[in-house]
Amino acid sequence: MSPKLAYFNCLGGVSGDMILGSMVDAGLKTEFLNSVIADLKLDNISIDSVKDNRQGVVGTKIKIEMNGQEDHRYKIRDFLYKLEKSNLADDIVKKSQDILQCIGDAESEIHNIGVDQLVLHELGSLDTLIDVTSCVAGMYELNLESVYSSPLPTGSGTVNTEHGVTTVPAPVTMSILSKFNVPLKPPPKQGIDTGEMVTPTGAVLLSSLAKFDQPYMTVDKWGYGLGSRNPESYPNVLGLLIGQQESQSESLILLETNIDDSTPEILSYVVDRLISSGALDAWTTPINMKKNRNGVLLSVLSTQDLDDRLRGIINRETTTFGIRSQMVKRFASKRENIVVATEIGNIPVKLKYKNNELVTVSPEYEVCRKIAMERQIPLKDVMEIARYHAKNN
User: Fold this and answer.
1) CA distance 239 to 382
2) In this predicted model, what pLDDT tens digit does every residue of 62-72 receive, in sequence order?
3) What is the pTM of this model?
4) Distance in angstroms between the alpha carbons of the first and the last residue of the chain
5) Where does the chain hold its CATH 3.30.70.1380 domain(s)?
6) What confidence score (pLDDT) does residue 117 get?
7) pLDDT, tens digit, for every residue of 126-175?
8) Architecture (CATH level 2) of domain 249-332
9) Where in the chain is the domain with CATH 3.10.20.300?
10) What is the fold, at CATH topology level, of the domain defined by 334-391?
């Protein structure tokens, strides 16, 4: 099964069971989730799912049957030990332990108690361990290579905890969100207290596993995970899209100016200077200007943080009296830079992918040119050798 991409759309917020519900709704089997519980060596606990709706959105609600074990409260080190002694794959154990440690560190910071001495309250029940481990294992099972998420809604109002009534988001949630610099958005209905929309478990799972951006993708499967509440002001659901990565886009700046009184030597120097100063690309195009004079269009592709620097270079190094600037979208194919060891030397190669399949192999010209000159062999042969090794790497 080829790797997939996942995008979580946090319409009604996020929690551990909402993430699980969205994955089950998109095709993950509850039998698999119960095998995770078996591998954790947890007795008399099971996971089931039911179809329901929230404000007309049909999705899956996860039910964890604890059979009386929810009253016991554990420390983070207890969870880490259970994972260490489990039958789960090493990758799942390590990732789950890292996520649970983040919860412990956040709680320790909030309560000013060492993490090994800290007894968790709401987060100390076994369903925290189950939510985290099942979500991590589920993403491996669905072969989700890349995970993305929308910004998280802050919610509003207060929430009741074992420590008393606290603000929304809860302090431990805010500690996690601030640590990972997670982007936040207002609650769906201004002026209406939504209550808690992001739980600590939901926050730490997406913060640890997802990039907060919306990718360009084609969708193969989708699902909705349902929260416990069914408020009238918004659908309490978490959307999940699973599919293939399309070309990623990024916002760039295109700088342009018309020049009719400069020499080719000067313009060649300017293009080299712009590229060495960080421009993504720079080029010239012959044009006809006013009074039918021959001229050159100088174009520069820049990231937003380099805009001022590159405009300064153009102003200093050319005779232009003005520079046009516009935002453009660049759609970049998935790529990888590698160095292949060949019988004629090490050669950098750029690989281009489409739907995770290798479609283009581009050896670095300057390195190939140098090898061809030194060894007195045709450049095309050097590049073909590099392509062969890259494809069979």
Assistant:
1) 50
2) 999 987 666 66
3) 0.67
4) 21
5) 249-332
6) 63
7) 889 999 999 999 999 999 989 999 999 998 887 776 666 778 888 889 99
8) 2-Layer Sandwich (3.30)
9) 334-391
10) Ubiquitin-like (UB roll) (3.10.20)
